[in-house]
Amino acid sequence: MSLTRIGLVSSFPPVEGQSYPPTRRHPHWKVIYRLHDEWMMKYWPFDSEKKRARVPFLNLAGFTAWCSPAGDLYRSIWGARAIGVIFFTDDCLDTGKMFDRIPGCKKAVTGTGPLHPNDRVECCNDAVFRAVKATCHPRTFDQVVYLIHEWFDTHNHEPFIDVNQYLTARRLDSGLYFSNGKYLMVALWSLC
């Protein structure tokens, strides 16, 4: 990788003692955190106010603020929201074992409208990915959708016997795939 290519990712020198440039937070990381949390608290269909109140303590926007320190602020905010929505969607699907909702969620991330207009999870995904689609190059957005569809396909449809089986069967497979997908998504999106 040439220095010019790295310069696209991070336009500033690395932190002392660290050789790779993206080692700093986005200069507007507090804004990204706040706007992510406010949006999630307003639009995500939490099943209790207690869960809604915990959003600011989850630091879900931190991944985007760290991964694209020189990214466009507007894209970084929507990137953080997209990752937050995907994490919450994963939790929603796993907790309730509602795998029948996967086709609707897959449609919602295409940015063309939810499959079920009354499903608030689908509507939330649709809102985020319409914004992502509006700021991305079409090929980049297609890659993002492809990665998210692949991630939805990693959901295991077998019943889980205990926590250990759940962690090994579900989280190991999709967690690794999804983490790699998120890195690629944020990298592609912040550079497009």
Give an overview in words.
This protein is mainly α and 192 residues long. The protein has one domain (25-191): Farnesyl Diphosphate Synthase (Orthogonal Bundle), CATH 1.10.600. The protein has nine helices and no strands. The protein has helices at residues 3-9, 29-43, 49-58, 62-67, 73-96, 102-108, 120-135, 138-153, 163-191. Helix 5 (73-96) packs antiparallel against helix 7, helix 6 runs parallel beside helix 7 and helix 8 runs antiparallel to helix 9. 31% of the residues are buried. The model is unreliable at 1-10 (pLDDT under 50).
Outline:
With 192 residues, the chain is mainly alpha-helical.
Key features of this structure:
globular, 192 residues, Farnesyl Diphosphate Synthase, disordered N terminus, Isoprenoid_synthase_dom_sf, 9 helices, mainly alpha
